Amino acid sequence: MSTIILGIESSCDDTSAAVIKDGVLLSSVIASQAVHEAYGGVVPELASRAHQQNIVPVVHEALKRAGVTKEELSAVAFTRGPGLMGSLLVGVSFAKGFARALGIPMVEVNHLQGHVMAHFIKESDGENVQPSLPFICLLVSGGNSQIIRVNAYNDMEVLGQTIDDAAGEAIDKCSKVMGLGYPGGPIIDKLARQGNPNAFTFSKPHIPGYNYSFSGLKTSFLYSLKEWVKEDPDFVEHHKTDLAASLEKTIVDILMDKLRKVVKDTGIKEVAVAGGVSANNGLRNAFREHAKKYGWNIFIPKFGYTTDNAAMIAITGYYKFLDKDFCTIDKPAYSRVTIK
Fold first, then answer.
1. How far apart are CA 4 and CA 20, in angstroms?
2. Is the pLDDT of residue 256 over 90?
3. Which of 138, 211, 226 is nearest to 174 (CA)?
4. Fewer CB near the terminus (10 Å): N or C of the chain?
5. What percent of the chain has pLDDT over 90?
6. What's phi and psi for 231, nearest 5 deg?
7. What is the mean pLDDT of residues 124-142?
8. Checking phi first, is residue 267 left (phi over 0); if not, alpha (psi -120 to 50) or beta?
9. Around 8, how many Cα atoms within 13 Å sit in the side-chain half-sphere?
10. For the sheet containing 270-274, what is the strand order?
11. pLDDT at site 141
12. What distances in angstroms separate CA 167 from CA 32, 104, 144, 251, 303, one per listed residue?
């Protein structure tokens, strides 16, 4: 008998549903929210309202594309946290009601664990190359920057993480300071390809161990820009490609310096990257360069699996379902937690 998992993701501003059958992805649907662009960031109340509007049609479309009826589902996997509480509540509440109505188990998924598990999403027409265990994963997104040792899908150890801001947040804030819009990641990435990464120098933190810090970089970028704009009011417009390229290089250098140290100290050369910032071309190129220089066996997710998506929730739920690791209906959503 086949195992069919419906995955639901609603941790931030994307409502997503996906269907996986025996570990193979059948469908993945994402409804994004453009409303936040006008505010320069995600507005929690607007996000939760949009999730309420999107959740039913998104789930319906995912089942339709998969050619699966709700009665055929084995379980519902959902993001329990971390994320925006209002957004999470929509997905969690829907998952509880849906599973209860069908009389099938619920499987809770840690959103961060899901990003790591995106490397195990199988596509029937894809190569389906997966990391061997154990492997090191650099998880970088708007809210998280972590280096994780992955021993098994349910055994992950955080070796290092940001002590303040995340890499993605730093990119978004610097983009906002430059007046480039939101979300900043894709904008900076596009401009950086046209600029000189060595044009400007910004502050790099000196944090012991494997931890990160990006608050100092944001401050350095802000004050440097203020000084340059005093001399030339159109400085950003004249130098935006070089600014983007230099900012990107600084952040990638910070990320890779610590990752390189972890790989050297652990001796684990199976190295993956995950999360929204893993879509950045500068970071992807750095991974490829390190693979050639240091003999790493690298794993870079498809662009569609870098940002928040329900496919990563469904595949994590699939493995947990096989272990009968189910969730009771009284479990609430949580806004803050790391990988345990």
1. 6
2. yes
3. 226
4. N
5. 84
6. -80, -30
7. 88
8. left
9. 32
10. 155-161, 145-152, 135-140, 270-274, 297-299
11. 87
12. 22, 39, 7, 7, 18
Strand partners, 270: 297
Q: In angstroms, rounded to a whole number, what is the distance separating the alpha carbons of residues 156 and 79?
A: 17
Cβ atoms within 10 A of the Cβ of 57, count? 13
Q: Is 254 helix (H, G, I), strand (E, B) or coil?
A: helix
What's the CA gap between 130 and 119, in Å, rounded? 6
Residue 199: per-residue pLDDT: 96
Helix (H, G, I), strand (E, B) or coil at 214: coil
Q: What is the pLDDT of residues 265-286, one digit of tens each?
A: 999 999 999 999 999 999 999 9
Q: Across residues 126-151, what is the average pLDDT? A: 91
Q: Is the separation of the CB atoms in 85 and 335 below 8 Å?
A: yes
Environment class of 127 (CB within 10 Å of its CB; exposed 0-12, middle 13-18, buried 19+): exposed
Question: How far, in whole angstroms, is CA 8 from its chain's centroid?
Answer: 15
Could you write out the DSSP letters of every residue in 44-82?
A: HHHHHHHHHHHHHHHHHHHHHHHT--GGG--EEEEEEES
The total of other beta-carbon atoms located within 10 Å of residue 167's CB is 27
- pLDDT averaged over every residue in the chain: 93
144 pLDDT band, cuts 50/70/90, is confident
Spatial separation of the C-alpha atoms in residues 334 and 77, rounded to whole Å: 15
Can you tell me the mean pLDDT for 295-301?
Answer: 97
* CB atoms inside a 10 Å sphere around CB 106: 21
CB of 225 within 8 A of CB of 178?
Answer: yes
Dist. CA 281–CA 300, nearest whole Å: 11
Residue 211 φ/ψ, nearest 5 degrees? -80, 160
Q: Read off the tokens for 288.
A: 């490829």
Structure-token pair, residue 200: 């400007």
What would the mean pLDDT of 11-28 be, rounded to a whole number?
A: 95
Q: What integer is the mean pLDDT of 219-232? A: 94
pLDDT value of position 127: 67
Q: Which residue bears the tokens 């994963």?
A: 137
**Closest among 248, 234, 253 to 194, alpha carbons compared:** 248
Contacts for 257 with CB less than 8 Å, ≥ 6 apart: none
